[in-house]
Amino acid sequence: MSAGFGEVPLKSERDIVLARQLVRRLTQELGFSLVDQTKMVTAASELARNAYVYGGGGAMRCQLRDENGRTGLTLVFSDEGPGIENVEMAMTDGWSSGTGLGMGLSGTRRLVNQFEIDSRPGAGTRVTITRWK
Amino acid sequence: MERIPILRMGEFLLVTIQVDMHDQMALQLQDDLTTAISRFGSKGVLIDISSLEMVDSFIGRMISDISGMGRILDAATVLVGMRPAVAITLVELGLSLPGIATALNVERGMALLRRNV
Questions:
Q1: Which neighbouring-strand residues pair with A78?
Q2: What pLDDT does residue A2 have?
């Protein structure tokens, strides 16, 4: 079972701040530990920035999850940007398209329980992450 | 635009980040700090992040850059007050902030700066 929790735009730097504040609030409401809250908020910040900076803007969709007695939060970041040519390479530590520290995607994957990326050149990028309580 | 205030304490600069910064604000702080170091001939910069609930790769890079720019301008940087949950997340993300002096709190950070100058 999962409940939708709306969609927030990622069209400015302020939207990135609002996105992480929303994720903070949701993880608090779900009763995540402080470390788990911080990991999910940080992951959201990384992916929101990617969607804004590289994807030319996009959106974050939140879903509260309740499956087999465990609760969690799923976030979907989508953009209609140029997409990623080599997803496998983009997922390695140290890979960077220029800005940042090259830890974006690979580092973010370590902060969550589930990580899926769907991207093709010209078709935008969609990253789905889930963290369970 | 909103700015993070920089306090001058003798030969040191003190910055306390108390808001959830958007990226432009972080870049502005970098600019303001390097300008202040050069204008006042500051020997050290203390950055207090005890209010920050999150440090992502962008803010991590800003901190690294400030430290590097400060070094070139002959000012030491000490980062203080990082929350344990932030430290755990940062290292898991892959950022251990190499080369950056840290201290547990402002008091110890100031002591470290005084020893280094």
A1: A59, A126
A2: 55
The average confidence (pLDDT) of chain B is 95
Q: Which two tokens stand for residue A89?
A: 């390479």
Please indicate if any CB of chain A lies within 8 Å of the CB of B91: no
Dist CA A29 CA A22 (whole Å): 11
Q: Which of A10, A14, A101, A113 to mutate to test the interface with B (most CBs of B within 10 A)?
A: A101
The pLDDT confidence band at residue A5, using thresholds 50, 70 and 90, is low
ipTM, interface predicted TM-score of the complex? 0.91
pLDDT at residue B2, rounded to an integer:
83
Work out the burial of residue A53: count CB atoms within 10 Å of its CB; fewer than 13 is exposed, 13-18 middle, 19 or more buried: buried
- Alpha carbons B94 and B102: distance in angstroms, whole number: 17
Interface residue B74 vs chain A (CB under 8 A): no
Which string of DSSP letters, residue by residue, matches B10-55?
Answer: TTEEEEE--S---HHHHHHHHHHHHHHHHHHT-SEEEEE-TT-S--
Using a CB–CB cutoff of 8 Å, tell me whether B58 touches chain A: yes
Chain A stretch 89-118, residues whose beta carbon is closer than 8 A to a beta carbon of chain B: 93, 100-101, 103-104, 106-108, 110-111
Which DSSP category does A97 fall into?
S
Task: Judge: A37–B58 Cβ closer than 8 Å, yes or no.
Answer: no
